[in-house]
Write a structure and sequence with these properties.
The chain has about 180 residues and is mainly α. The protein has helices at about 1-20, 35-40, 60-70, 70-75, 110-120, 130-145; strands spanning about 55-60, 150-155.
Length: about 180
C-alpha cells in the first residue's frame, strides 16, 4: 500500500512538474495583429453614429432583403416568426403584457444597424453588405411607423432617427457613473 501511494504521489508530482515546465507561455503564440486586420474587426457602431460605414439604403429595397434573409425567422413583416418579433408593441411596455420590439423597446436606431451588421442573418452573420444593412434597418423602422415606407438611410441620417423609447431606458443610480478600473 505504501509503495502504490508513493508511486501515485510521484506520478502526480511528475505530471504537475511536466505541465509547468513544458506548458507554453502566452508570448509563445501568435503575432501582433496588422492594422488592416484590426480594421476588419473594428466594426462597432456607437449610439451617436460613430463607426457607421459609408453607404445607404432604402426601406423599399430593404423589404426585398428582409424577405430573402430575415422573414424565415422573424416572419413576414417582422411578426409571427419563430424568432423575436421586430414590429409592433408600441405603448405596451407599461402593460401587463409588454411586447419588446424594435419599435417599442430599442433606444437607438444605430444599435439596430450594429446588431444586424454583425450578427444577422442567423445562418450567415455579417454577410449583408453595408447598403443592404441600411436598407433592412430602414425597412424595419418603417414597419414600426418610425420612418415612412419610402425612407432612405445613411451614416448621416441614421443617428438622427429618434426612437420612441429613447428616453425610456434610464440606468439605476448605482450604474450611472461607472468608471474604468484599469
Amino acid at each position: 500500500m505504501e509503495v502504490s501511494a508513493m508511486f501515485s504521489r510521484s506520478t502526480v508530482a511528475f505530471v504537475i512538474f511536466a505541465s509547468a515546465a513544458f506548458s507554453a507561455r502566452a508570448y509563445d503564440f501568435g503575432r501582433p495583429a496588422a492594422p488592416e486586420e484590426i480594421k476588419l474587426w473594428d466594426i462597432d457602431v456607437h449610439p451617436d453614429g460613430k463607426g457607421l460605414p459609408p453607404g445607404s439604403g432604402s426601406a423599399v429595397s430593404g423589404k426585398t432583403v428582409f424577405e430573402e434573409n430575415c422573414a424565415a425567422c422573424h416572419g413576414p413583416g417582422g411578426q409571427n416568426g419563430i424568432k423575436d418579433r421586430l414590429a409592433g408593441g408600441q405603448r405596451t411596455l407599461a402593460s401587463d403584457h409588454p411586447i419588446k420590439t424594435v419599435g417599442s423597446y430599442w433606444p437607438y436606431a444605430t444599435t439596430l444597424f450594429d446588431y444586424i451588421h454583425r450578427a444577422m442573418p442567423y445562418q450567415a452573420p455579417g454577410s449583408l453588405s453595408d447598403d443592404d444593412t441600411y436598407s433592412v434597418v430602414a425597412y424595419i423602422l418603417s414597419l414600426n411607423g418610425i420612418l415612412p415606407t419610402d425612407a432612405k438611410l445613411d451614416k448621416e441620417t441614421l443617428p438622427k432617427v429618434k426612437m420612441p423609447n429613447r428616453d425610456g431606458l434610464i440606468p439605476e443610480p448605482e450604474f450611472r457613473n461607472i468608471t474604468n478600473s484599469r
